[in-house]
Amino acid sequence: MKLELRGISKAFPGVVANDGIDLVVQPGEIHALLGENGAGKSTLMNVLYGLYQPDAGEILVDDVQVTFGDPGDAIAAGIGMVHQHFMLIPVFTVTENVMLGSESVKGPIGVLDIQDARGRIVELSERHRLRVDPDAMIEDLPVGVRQRVEIIKTLYRKSSVLVLDEPTAVLTPQEIEDLFEVMRSLKAGGTSIIFITHKLNEVLAVADRITVLRRGKVVGTTTPGESDEADLARMMVGRPVQLDVTKAPSKPGEPVLEVVGLTVQDDRGQAAVRNLDVTVHAGEILAVAGVQGNGQTELVEAVTGLRPLSSGEIKIAGQPIKADPRRIFEAGVGHVPEDRLEEGLVPGFTIADNMVLNTYYLKPYANGVSLQRDAIMATARRLREEYDVRTPSVDNEASTLSGGNQQKVIVAREFSRPLKLLVAAQPTRGLDVGSIEYIHRRIVEKRDEGAAVLLVSTELEEVLSLGDRIAVMFQGTIVDILEPAEATPERLGLLMGGSHPEEMVADEVTAAAAESRRA
Amino acid sequence: MGRVTAAAAALSPARRGGLTRERILGVVYLALAAVIVFVFTGVEAGDSSAFGLNLGRGGLQLPDVVVPSAPTAYLLALIAASLGAMQLIRGFGTRWAVVLGVVVVAFVLAFLTWASAGGSINFAGLLQSTLQRSVPITFGALSGILCERAGVVNVAIEGMLLTGAFVSAVVASATDNSWLGVIGAVLAGGLLAALLAVLAIRYLVDQIIAGIVLNILAVGLTSFLATRVLTPNPDLNSPERFGEVQIPVLTEIPLLGPIVLENNVFIYMMFAAIAILSFMLFRTRWGLRVRSVGEHPKAADTVGIDVYWVRYRNVILGGMMAGLGGAYFTLGSTGSFEQEMTAGRGFIGLAAMIFGGWAPVGSFLAALVFGFADALQSRLSILNIPVASQFLQMAPYIVTIVVVAGLVGRVRAPAADGRPYRKG
Amino acid sequence: MTGTPTAPVPHADAMGVGDPAPTPPAGGQSAIEAWVRGVPRALVVPALALLTALAIGAIIIIVSDRDFVTQMGSNPAAALGAGLAKVRDAYIGLIGGSIGSPRAISETLLQATPLILTGLAVAVGFRAGLFNIGAEGQLYAGAASSIFVGFALVGVPAFIHLPLAVLAGIAGGAFWGFIPGFLKARTGAHEVIVTIMLNYVAYRFIDWLLNQPFFQREGRTDQISRFVEPSAELPRLIEGFRTHWGIFLALAAAAFVSWLLFRSTKGFEFRAVGLNPSAARYAGMSIGGTLILAMMVSGGLAGLAGASEMLGSNKTLTPGFSPGWGFDAIALALLGGARPLGVVFAALLFGALRAGATPMQVSTGIPIDLVVVIQALVIMFIAAPALVRGLYRIRVERRIGSEVFTKGWGA
Fold first, then answer.
1. Is C3–A339 a contact, with Cβ atoms under 8 angstroms apart?
2. CA nearest to C182 within chain B
3. pLDDT grade for C132, boundaries at 50, 70 and 90
4. Domain locations in chain C?
5. Which pLDDT score is estimated for C56?
6. Of the four listed, A174, A262, B352, C27, which is most buried by Cβ atoms within 10 Å?
7. Which residues of B touch C60 (CB under 8 A)?
């Protein structure tokens, strides 16, 4: 079907998320919706899916105006959505998740007919080569499989327009290729796909047409033939973008962080980090790349004292550490956590209180048990200036800040102390380009001051531009550590997906030999 | 319940080291065995304990089970000790709950043997009392399940029970029809629940606060009206209780027959409620949708399920269930309304729900445990035990604390339990 | 799942580098809001809540009167007139009994003293994210321990005996608060169920104590304890009036809690753990230790309430001496926005209601439970400011950190 969004506007208190957006998706085309974080892509799709009502504008299906009061209407019209954060219920099976809302039932009271649903799922899974086990429980499935379940959910409801919201954030490059294959095969079958992303190379690889959003407005529509990465980047951000951080080569000094034989369990009792060794020296940035869910989170938690070690040893500046965040902090470790709202800030506290969140008990902020408000305020004001935190007052609650400014508060807090080791996990997730550039600069500054930096990131560009050495984590171990020169995206992609390029060559040689023997 | 415990059991106690739950359980079993040996064997040599198995009415009469007191206690201690030793050495994996049950049963039997040494105890009466006392707790738990499976925490069950008790007494007295009293109680419970639903879902009041507030309101209103209206008009507080209904033929089953099947209508309604709710929750579309709302409301919303409607509906149904349970206090048990007569049963029902893994059958079994503690303490005040009655009265509450403290992390609540849903 | 946090201000990232924090939108005003401009905003919702509750209370008074019901059929106007007259008498009695005379004011202060303390107890708990429903049990524990020290020591000078007895009360309450705190810290057991159960345990324990020879008054077989020694009594403020030094203890406690929550490192930890335990852990705070300390402070405050009642008012322990102060405390903490000053004012209000309730019952025959109902209604409206706002169409800010604490039953 042909889908058109005409003049869609949607505002929230204080923000205009969508401003008069026009979008046309032809039948059987892959249409990319490109924009940086916060450009309004997800809002637009939520309007399309009936989760929000637009303040102005229309939706037209095959040139007929429709209204979607809730997702049920959108589903009925043939629109299927795979959200960025999966809408799957962990304790239900694949079958239960897929059929939820469109259940097959027997009899007047609605007894579930699991067999019928199962059969249809198996059939869909085979037809589109999306392998899933209908009886598996979602919480036992890896992320890539969960995404397949989400796609099957939409196919189960016979969608003719499939919306994929940032689907590649959780995939290895090889899995991304598989996903593109699935997309192309669906397109061949007549399904239109709206592919939302902020990654330029993906857009050029798979899209038929590209619409670029910036600050809630459409900046332009183009095709891969007519533009390249630089053009798209400029359209996305509005100015030429420095895609790489310029930094001087590193001068590594003494080892600061030494991890030997580390094994750490995740919340479910499985080993998330297995027998891992790594060393980070003063004055260098070790960037750890890897797809989310391969143990990076648990590694960071172990190093910062938030998770106990099952075995192995971690030494910071030569001293072995225990799972005591305060001790580790006092040893000169700064931690920019992965989830700024969950861990890094207390949103209900003032900005000033957040600035001293881990130093409140030390002089001059406290005299014994008594807090010294003046000292806290003075420091908070100074840091606000120094780190360019945009807020009218440090007495406002931290929840009033934008994401970028919240991250700056965390950075201000952690960076304003002398650090031996900086642990930064996904430090620029969800931020706009300006904030990203700022934080990258600060991290390099810290390195140049002599700190050892452990950077964990799922964004390959960040890893490549900041890392003095690049490690790749896969299933709880470090599979390799590369110099920047050797770290091509292809090589990194293979490592992130678990294959060793040397092994691959060896496999090919063996396969070729077997071929020639058969001939 | 098996999924979480499977993961936890994958690492046996020996490998994990230190003070784990498994180790504590093992030590507890051994300690219980020690108590049996050092306390419960303190009887006159040659004493025997008689367990009466009849309810004192017609029909098949079973002979008393008479056991020698001390040897029986030693035997039960042996069982507990060996299970304790096995727990420490190997652990029991997914069967830990069964073993816990066995040890508890052994301990209780030893206690009863000691208590009735040289005399007798009406065991059948004890069991029947257990069943009866578990009725309001079960209804409370079922009410909690209806609400919490949809993601709404309901601590106002206590208030709904109380309101149900009050309304049923008054309506039944005024209309001289006990069934109308039941209906009145159901409606009253539903009304109170509707208030909770509005506060929690529409006005985003914290669910526990809203529940506590409603409890205070219920206690205040019923006490006020009891003094102002019932005391001057005692004819409004003398409803007719339901009599017993015997199921023919099946009551001939020895021991269980009379206990289970010669009860008033509330017991049968309870069994029906357990069966129906269990089926609906786990085998029908209705139940799948309810559970999805309680686990992941956003996911349910995106497939077109109306989260708000499901929550409103379930909370009101929960209130009706609690109202029904409240009617038991007056129309099934004592007959007239007294201020604050529910004495915490609503909260014990919540504990039973947690203990039972948010499932109807499990909650009923848990309610039996609490009911047993309750029944025991009222009987033991008759026997001569060197333990003051007030401490026995504490038993149900202490059991509740132990259960709640011991089970966190073992059982999993619906994932979105207690969190209000904000659309968009 | 990638775990990207959803920012509370949606898509503010779109504003990027250049913009300041978004300001709350200006909007239309209702007539009431315009009129009320001068009054401090924080009072508007509580005041309206009180008025609404009184109005509903009036309806209950009218409707629960048998004469009204029977007369409604024949002569509605007269029935309504009589009903309204009853309401007028009731509320006059209420007001007169609470602030109408020096004696009334003394009664109000007397009733407010335990309310201030238990209200503070629950408020401290809220700040740390804990629902302390056990203030009643902690109150009893404190009462028992303080009265024991009060009558067990004989011949000790007052300046030692009295503080010792007071401290004993605090310690008793702190212990009773320690138990749920410890269980929550070590096992994750939800404090709502544990504290409620401990209330019942406390009642039974008091029952038992009052039957023991060492506790029971000589020569009596009913449940009443020995008298406090004069050296442990809290002195009266003014001769002839019942108010005693407990009120100063209560106000001092309020000042202490204010300092604790907002000017001490421990209070910083309480609030951090209450608002965001993950961030508190990240910042190096000990969650378990903080929870235990918070529950002990909370219990101690409630225990002090018990001590104040024993040593100042009753001088002897009986079961059921508390008309539910521990539960009113929940309402007070909510009304006061978990701030000490707010709690004090709320407690004075509730104290006034209670003080006036008995004269009201004496003069009009309306049971004092009506006051409980009014209180419950006030709480309900306070807990749902949106409800009041919806009724009167106002927009008023409410700050208690995050409004929603509940996260289910697990750790």
1. yes
2. B405
3. very high
4. 40-100+365-395, 114-349
5. 84
6. B352
7. 224
Q: Which domains does chain A have, with CATH numbers?
A: 3-237 (3.40.50.300), 245-332+418-519 (3.40.50.300), 338-417 (no CATH)
- Within 13 Å of residue B2, how many CA atoms lie on the same side as its CB? 3
Gap from B254 CA to chain C (nearest CA, Å): 37
Name the CA dihedral angle for B7, B13, B18, B21, rounded to a multiple of 10 degrees: 70
For residues C188 and B413, the answer to whether their CB atoms sit within 8 Å is no
CB B322 within 8 A of CB B157: yes
Using CA atoms, how far residue A237 sits from A19, A209, A464, C16, C20, in Å, is 17, 19, 21, 10, 19
**C98, C309 in Cβ contact below 8 A?**
no
Cβ–Cβ gap A100/B289 under 8 Å: yes
What average pLDDT score do residues C122-130 get? 93
The whole-angstrom separation of Cα B328 and Cα B284 is: 29
Report the distance separating Cα B372 and Cα A444, nearest Å: 67
Give rounded-to-5 percent helix, strand, coil for chain B.
70, 5, 25
Please name the residue of chain A whose CA is at the shortest distance from the CA of residue B412: A91
d(CA B114, CA B47): 10
Sign of CA dihedral A206, A211, A214, A220: positive
- β-pairing, A217-222 with A209-214? antiparallel
Question: Which tokens hold the place of A161?
Answer: 């327009």
* CA–CA separation, A417 and A405 (whole Å): 19
Which two three-digit tokens encode residue A369? 């048990």
Q: A478: number of CA atoms within 13 Å, CB side? A: 20
Q: Which domains does chain B have, with CATH numbers?
A: 2-124 (no CATH), 132-241+248-407 (1.10.3470.10)
| Residue C55 burial (CB count, 10 A) | 12
> Is there a contact between C140 and C325 (Cβ–Cβ < 8 Å)?
no
Cα distance between residue C97 and residue C91, in whole Å: 10
What residues of B are in contact with residue A112 (Cβ under 8 Å)?
A: 283-285, 288
Query: Helices (H), strands (E): how many in chain B?
Result: 17, 5
Burial level of B403, CB count in 10 A (0-12/13-18/19+)? Answer: buried
Summarised one tens digit per residue, pLDDT across range B185-202 is 999 999 999 999 988 888
Reading the block at residue C25, the tokens are: 């939108």
Of residues A447 and C47, the one with the higher pLDDT is A447
Low-confidence ranges of chain A (pLDDT < 50): 519
ipTM score over 0.90, yes or no: no
CA-closest candidate to residue C132, choices C141, C123, C140: C123
C-alpha torsion sign, points B414, B417, B419, B420:
positive
Amino acid at C129: G
Looking at residue C397, what is its pLDDT?
37
Q: What is the amino acid identity at position B13?
A: P
A261 in B contact zone (CB under 8 Å)? no
- The two counts, helices (H) then strands (E), for chain C are 16, 0
Q: Do C367 and B227 touch (CB under 8 A)?
A: yes
Q: Alpha helices of B116-156 — where are they, by DSSP H?
A: 123-148
What single-letter DSSP state applies at residue C232?
G
**And the tokens for A177?**
């290729």
> Looking at the partner chain, which of C188, C369, C380 has a beta carbon nearest the beta carbon of B227?
C369
Confidence band of C213 (pLDDT split at 50, 70, 90): confident
Half-sphere exposure of A262 (CA within 13 A, CB side): 31
User: Is A156 near chain B, with CB under 8 Å?
Assistant: no
Token pair of A348, please?
Answer: 């209900």
Q: E strand or H helix at C253, and its extent? A: helix C246-263
Residue A81 β-bridge partners? A163
